[in-house]
């Protein structure tokens, strides 16, 4: 057994959230160690890599730097086989090289003074009055680390969350994604809806430079079988797509905002905290934005006392900034989950109505879905004519019945 080391902060997980927090805290002068179980940052990668162009700048990052493809909107494919295109003239999002993105965040963390320990898997974490102890499996054997505070940046199935009693209900969406060689000159992502494909999520085909990313997620069932079905259904793929798979990965998307994210001497960030958009599961912008909040609160707590009471401010600040995003997004997701295939097809057809289309194109923001939900709620009465009173009541009931 190696000896003890004492840091201010140990971050478990060298993904985007862990590295971004590491950079921010190291810049403030804290001793930070980031533990990453894999031999390389950014691998294995399971992500469609879609990032809104505008919001990320708010946290000092520019998605243009890792861009593979630019998107102007999406095509939504209904179970009946119809499709609805919603695009704007301007670029809405970038499809990024996720591995490069993760590596650049790690490099920034190291430049700021954080240490990254690769091949270092946290096996156990315990908290006591003097600090936090972490048992870490490394190629050289078990190491015991100590710090003032521990951060769970270790993804959906967070060991830190489980060890610290912060993860009670675990019902993630299991996803599978393939990268298929081929290029389409399009600026649109494709979204596939239908209960035969996924009851609680959706499938996607996203042009990503020299490949397409084809993926699907669901709470139940075998994601690989669902992916094969999607590949068969998505006729925009090249011929014999199965023979052109260059990469296949699986991953989990957490239940959005369903966890306690702080405790005595511990906080969770990113997917470990459930900081993902409820409707699409996208967690890069939301996770990093909440991580920025975590950095501020952790700084204050480290300068005072990293007690549960002081760290509670993190949850309050996240709810203040994104509470409505989580609440409305969760309602919209649950509403979609209640729909039969006929309902889904009918719902997508509504998007072809000029009034609805206008509202979507005016208010839909890639990384902030609540703007559109609020506009739809506000405009509700004026939609009666276009949607029909009975239909509108049906959607209102689904949306409010949680
Ligand atoms: C199929 C799929 C598609 C997605 N597409 C998009 C998208 O298009 N846009 C978007 O914004 N988001 C997308 N997401 C979500 C996005 O990938 C996540 O929100 C993001 O990766 C979260 O970053 P993170 O740092 O919190 O966690 P992760 O990226 O999961 O990183 C956690 C890190 O912790 C390490 N780790 C775990 N346990 C331990 C341990 N015990 N000890 C040491 N290290 C450990 C892991 O190896 C990993 O490197 C997608 C997710 C999936 C599954």
From TrEMBL:
Ranges for domain FAD-binding: 8-316
InterPro entries: FAD-bd, FAD/NAD-bd_sf, Geranylgeranyl_Rdtase_fam, Geranylgeranyl_reductase
Coiled coil feature spans: none
Database matches in Pfam families: FAD_binding_3
Protein name, per record: FAD-binding domain-containing protein
Source species, domain of life: Archaea
GO molecular function: FAD binding; oxidoreductase activity, acting on the CH-CH group of donors, NAD or NADP as acceptor
Organism: candidate division MSBL1 archaeon SCGC-AAA259A05
